[in-house]
Design goal:
Helix content: 25-40%
Strand order of the largest sheet: 2-3-1-4-8-7-5-6
Radius of gyration: 22 Å
Number of domains: 2
Order of helices and strands: EHEEEHHEHEEEHEHEHEEHHEHEE
CATH topology of the largest domain: Rossmann fold
Largest sheet: 8 strands, mixed
Amino acid sequence: MHTPLVARCLRGLEPLVAAEVVRCGLGAVTDLRHREVHFRATRSAPPLRTADDVFLLAARSPDVGAARQAPRDLTALADRTDLDHLLPLRRTAAAPVCVDVSASFLGRRAFTRYDAEDAVGEALAQRLGVPYHSRRTGAAPPPGSCGWRLTLDGTQATLMLRVDDRPLHRRAYKRHTVPGTLHPPLAAAMAELAGIGPGQTVVDPCCGAGTLLIEGALTRPDARFHGFDLSAQAVAAARANAGDLPVTVRRCDAGRLPLPDGAADRVLCNPPWGAQVPAGGLLADAPERWWTELRRILSPDGAAAVLLPGRDDLAAALRHGFTPVHAQRLRLSGAQPFLVRMTVKDARRGRR
């Protein structure tokens, strides 16, 4: 089997998603595009933890352009799709009860995403003999819907069929959220970037709903995961989400962690820099304490995978004795933070 698949992801995570495809032995990566990793699967693909979703490649054509009437030309993609071949490749045996389409495009257009969705969705629904569910109203598709994805990137129009019943980024464990909660595929990418080893101690000083620790524990259950948060609501949410995973969560101030020096082999963190969640406790008056605590608890051979809002924060990492060994810019909720892996120099032994 050499099935063409497309993994969709956050902008900036494409190389990490491609690395997961290769690491899992799924097949050959054939292309990296805007928020997409194209690969040819040689076996059935397990859920990719760093991807938002995975689709079967259905059809391609040149981008239809920006004119108001352009969406009507997209019906050709639906007409060329081999439904008899694609539908049995989904990870569900149930026949679709309706069709829904989610579209996105780059550049300015004289039509909306809903115009493009409706053109393709109505054509697909007619071919399948089922109703079409339009997203114009904002209502979620009903259970059993057959999900499609349409992208227009200025060069190509691509139509794809979702492999699973629901998007991969909707994790079953995430029943409780708090403000600023992290996108699960990004958390999985950060855990992978950290390089967690067996038996290691992993710490999140500002764990929120526990997403980073849980994603780490799901891929490395033989490590030990410890989360801390000043918010009682966050601690309760993280404990409930973690369930029976090897994750312990306590309420405390990230500016004064109850850990000995050098206790953490790995640190995973999305610090409260004030964009979505304001800093509290000791960090409210002295944000630099986050860096000094991170420096104190990280072991000499340790590493931290963190989100930093901008270049000034990379400079702060250097000021506090950290060396960024990987920095990748992302697009996340309208911002462009850096995903950074940092090590710290052991002054006593002169090594990183």
